[in-house]
Design a protein that fits this description.
The protein is built from eight helices and seven strands. It is of the alpha/beta class. A seven-stranded parallel sheet has the order 3-2-1-4-5-6-7, sandwiched between helices. The protein binds NADP nicotinamide-adenine-dinucleotide phosphate. NADP nicotinamide-adenine-dinucleotide phosphate binds next to helix 1, helix 4, strand 5 and helix 6.
């Protein structure tokens, strides 16, 4: 594992942390690559060392720098240790992105309590742990704290009660943080991904869905990653809290 170094003759190293990084063709990987392209050293975090290393290699082969960090977003001690690792590496942590949150379909009457609770832990509680640690480490200097949402953030749907409620809770958490931390210098943003992402999750995991929806309806990962960069770039007197993004053919 390579960690960034700081040299007093060089400009201060800028760092970004993205948690919820899995496949090379996933949103977490694309956000990481986007910030690496802008000269950030990116800490890519998730639960699987092997997939993180692949994302790190992808970034390095494009000329960027990155470090893989294994952490489960729902475990307080692991989130704290992750931020310790990132902050110990020198430079300034300017961007923290919470991208964890897999879809959890299921009918209410068939659903175990533990399944519902797990969805909430990944989509909401982890966002709290991550956002809290980001604020503790990034203030008073400030920076961007960005959350990934979904169609579920804005509406409930039959068969998706666990995911819908957890993503909606994450959105309100992000909004509360934006109002609480904004005046102190943290730009908190939320990106509503309103539709299926063109990536491994759907192409490998749900090919039948890709076929049913059609290619045109899948949201471009690069376009999404640009939105995170756009939010980070905004000046403090022109901050956006939320962007909602979908393909042109998405019925909404
Ligand atoms: N894919 C879609 O069509 C779609 C649509 C709308 C919104 N979204 C949102 O987009 C985000 C994910 O993007 P993606 O679907 O392209 O997937 P991705 O970025 O490729 O991967 C996200 C990764 O997060 C990791 N993760 C899950 N639980 C975690 C935890 N507790 N702690 C740390 N890492 C965890 C998983 O990897 P490990 O299992 O290796 O940890 C997972 O592969 C989510 O917020 C999701 O709700 C996705």
């Amino acid at each position: 594992m390579t960690t960034p170094t700081n040299n007093s003759d060089m400009p201060e190293l800028k760092k970004a942390l993205v948690i919820g990084v899995g496949a090379e063709k996933g949103l977490g990987a694309s956000i990481s690559a986007r910030f690496a392209r802008e000269g950030f050293h990116v800490f890519v975090a998730g639960r699987t060392a092997q997939s993180l290393e692949q994302v790190v290699q992808q970034i390095r082969s494009a000329g960027g720098t990155a470090t893989a960090a294994v952490a489960d977003a729902t475990r307080e001690s692991e989130v704290q240790a992750l931020f310790d690792q990132v902050c110990a590496a020198g430079g300034s942590l300017d961007v923290a992105v919470y991208n964890a949150g897999n879809n959890t379909p299921g009918a209410v009457t068939e659903m175990d309590a533990s399944y519902f609770e797990h969805a909430w832990r990944v989509c909401c509680f982890g966002g709290f742990l991550f956002g809290r640690e980001a604020a503790r480490r990034m203030l008073p200097r400030g920076g961007s704290l960005l959350f990934t949402g979904a169609s579920a953030s804005l509406r409930g749907r039959a068969g998706f009660a666990a995911f819908n409620s957890a993503k909606a809770a994450l959105r309100n958490l992000a909004q509360a943080m934006a109002k609480e931390l904004g005046p102190k210098g943290m730009h908190v943003g939320h990106v509503v991904v309103d539709g299926g992402i063109d990536g491994d999750k759907l192409r490998k995991g749900r090919p039948e869905m890709v076929q049913r929806f059609g290619e045109e309806r899948l949201i471009d990962r690069g376009g999404l990653a640009d939105a995170y960069w756009f939010l980070h770039q905004q000046p403090p007197r022109a901050w956006t809290f939320e962007l909602d993004m979908r393909s042109k053919v998405e019925p909404w």
